[in-house]
């Protein structure tokens, strides 16, 4: 009785192939919950893309802790997106992976520290962007060249940029950042970027044709064809209720005649937990508040839909199941039926992923 | 740098002595150029480090209408150590000085190269439909010093003045140049330079020679008869090619002012065929940098190829003077075959040199409201 992600296999694979073919040098990103698919599955798919001759030689993971999930399933290089620090999981990388792992380094002192531990380390240097998360400023990038001159075995694999989501064109920013790379005197001409549109990538490849552009792609690769994906929950129980009938953990009463539906999918899956959507409008913020205050203000919309209509939560979701209220007159599904669920893939843990 | 240099006004003599000691400086940074641009107030500035003159600038003050405030303009300058990693130390005393002189903003054009493209690449770019501008082509070389300057100017709050498409109001960001030395510094031979040209250029140079085209060059201060002859042909060219000519007085001022600095600073060249003037040009040289500055040609007798002959004579002269580079000056960045400017590029590309991108012109607002008003005014004027 599961919350299931069903993948239309042929359609999904066709999409994956098309994205990889359209983005030479692509670096698939497999991080977090594996965009709902799990890290292991994405690693196998990345390997499959490479086997198809699409030149996927590197897979990116978010953290050092994610390495064991992908290392056996993907045979190529493994880029870790979280910057290397001289503490924590970064220092516990399985020695057998040392030669496959490409570190991200974002501070001058970390270049020195990393090379002190592993003189032949492979790494990319992350530049700070307008996102202002991690990264070296242009001056700091200049400072790296003399350090590398003292470490002849160090393997600089390129420059990394983590751009914010598009707000207008990124190109002027990328131009400036690449100018800083030229200014640094570093010998690398490979740049690893995210969040560029196909048009921006084309333009970049022409004006920076002497550079190798490696697009890091996650969402647009794995989730780019939503039509290939469907999420369903199972109806576990159905109870007819009259107005005033008591139900649920909290002893609520039914507002009118209808049905209480118990469906699979609860807080353990991420159901009913709001990840901020990034929509900053007043309406969106009010909606988030309303969901948080579910108990106080009555029924709110759930992500479950029956016959194309989103239904109300009868009470806040439980750990593995949710209760919905279905007013009188609506079609009542039977126990065992599947209902559609709208989820954020990156914030949902599915019980099963079925690729058909 | 051990200590920060100080900036103060210097005499034109000191300024000229400093320019003379340089391998390369733009002619727009010579004290004489200030006299050519007589409609603006000019000033020679020097950078001093431990009492020694280590940098110089020609500043032209352009007054805002109605107020006693100026845009301080340093065309293709200043002449300072652009390789410095601490440009802030060079530029801060400059802007402080200019502010005290009543400047609301500074505009300068660092003479540093950011990108180069070979003639072959430019040619392919024109033939390739997907390539619209030079920027669409990967360069043969990116200038490390140029990139550092650009990086630092951004850091210091300077703003690049975009030069979109054609020639903007300022100095051209893209130029076409023939290097006269190999990468290792050895001077190229005439043969070698000739071999670098395309077939058409070589054929035309040979043809002009065969047809008996003779090229003569002025020595010392340009005489008024020569200047008149150049200007007559220049007016003829302007009418044919639809551009607005400059008056004779402009050229007189220019040849007098530049000619007074060095005997071979500025020269006129004439190509004649059986006594008829078929082409005339002006060349300028500062140290090891030689420029082709102005050109004119007759509509009659184009078949004797006077223009190619006179260019070749100027190139040979630059070689003989030990110059590092022969500079054909501005090109637009367009490589679109439908653009009217592309013919000019094609003519220059035939010489086999390279397209060179400079860092371009940069502004630093000193008085923000006034600078904003000025910027708006310039944009409206378009």
Topology:
The complex is a heterodimer of chains A (356) and B (382).
Chain A: E1 4-7, H1 9-22, E2 27-28, H2 39-54, E3 58-61, H3 67-71, E4 77-80, E5 101-105, H4 108-117, E6 122-127, H5 138-149, E7 155-161, H6 171-184, E8 190-194, H7 198-207, E9 212-217, H8 219-222, E10 229-241, E11 246-247, E12 252-253, E13 258-264, H9 282-292, H10 294-297, E14 301-306, E15 309-313, E16 321-327, E17 338-341, E18 352-355
Parallel strand pairs in A: 1-18, 2-9, 3-4, 4-5, 5-6, 6-7, 7-8, 8-9
Antiparallel strand pairs in A: 1-10, 10-13, 10-17, 11-12, 13-16, 14-15, 14-17, 15-16
Helix pairs in contact in A: 5-6
Chain B: E1 6-9, H1 12-20, H2 31-36, E2 41-49, E3 52-63, E4 70-74, H3 87-100, E5 103-108, E6 113-118, H4 119-127, E7 141-142, H5 144-155, E8 159-160, E9 174-179, H6 190-196, H7 199-210, E10 214-217, H8 224-241, H9 248-261, E11 266-273, E12 276-286, E13 289-297, H10 306-320, E14 325-331, H11 342-349, E15 354-358, E16 362-365, H12 368-381
Helix pairs in contact in B: 7-10
Describe this structure in words.
The complex is a heterodimer of chains A (356) and B (382). Chain A is an alpha/beta fold and 356 residues long. Chain A has two domains: 8-224, TIM Barrel (Alpha-Beta Barrel), CATH 3.20.20.10; 228-355, Lyase, Ornithine Decarboxylase, Chain A, domain 1, CATH 2.40.37. Chain A is 28% helix and 26% strand. In chain A, a hairpin with a 4-residue loop joins β11 and β12. In chain A, 37% of the residues are buried. Chain B has 382 residues and is an alpha+beta fold. The radius of gyration of chain B is 21 Å and the shape is globular. Classes of the chains: A alpha/beta (356), B alpha+beta (382). At the A-B interface, α5, α6 and α7 of A face α5 of B.
Note the gap between the termini of chain A.
Answer: 19 Å
Hey, roughly how much beta strand do the residues of chain B contain? Answer: 25-35%
Element order of chain B: H for helix, E for strand: EHHEEEHEEHEHEEHHEHHEEEHEHEEH
User: What is the CATH C level class of the largest domain in chain B, in words?
Assistant: Alpha Beta
**CATH architecture group name of the largest domain in chain A:** Alpha-Beta Barrel
Q: What is the arithmetic mean of pLDDT of chain A? A: 91
Total of DSSP H or I helical runs spanning 4+ residues of chain A: 10
- Main structural class of chain B: alpha+beta
Approximate shape of chain B: globular
Helix/strand class of chain A: alpha/beta
* Secondary structure: number of strands of chain A: 18
Beta-strand residue fraction of chain A: 25-35%
Considering DSSP H and I runs of 4 or more, what fraction of the residues of chain B is helical? 25-40%
The geometry of chain A reads as elongated
| CATH-defined superfamily of the largest domain in chain A | Alanine racemase
Largest sheet of chain A, described in full? 8 strands, parallel
Mean pLDDT of chain B equals 93
Q: What are the segments of chain B in which pLDDT stays under 50 over at least 5 consecutive residues? A: none
Number of helices of chain B: 12
Radius of gyration of chain B: 21 Å
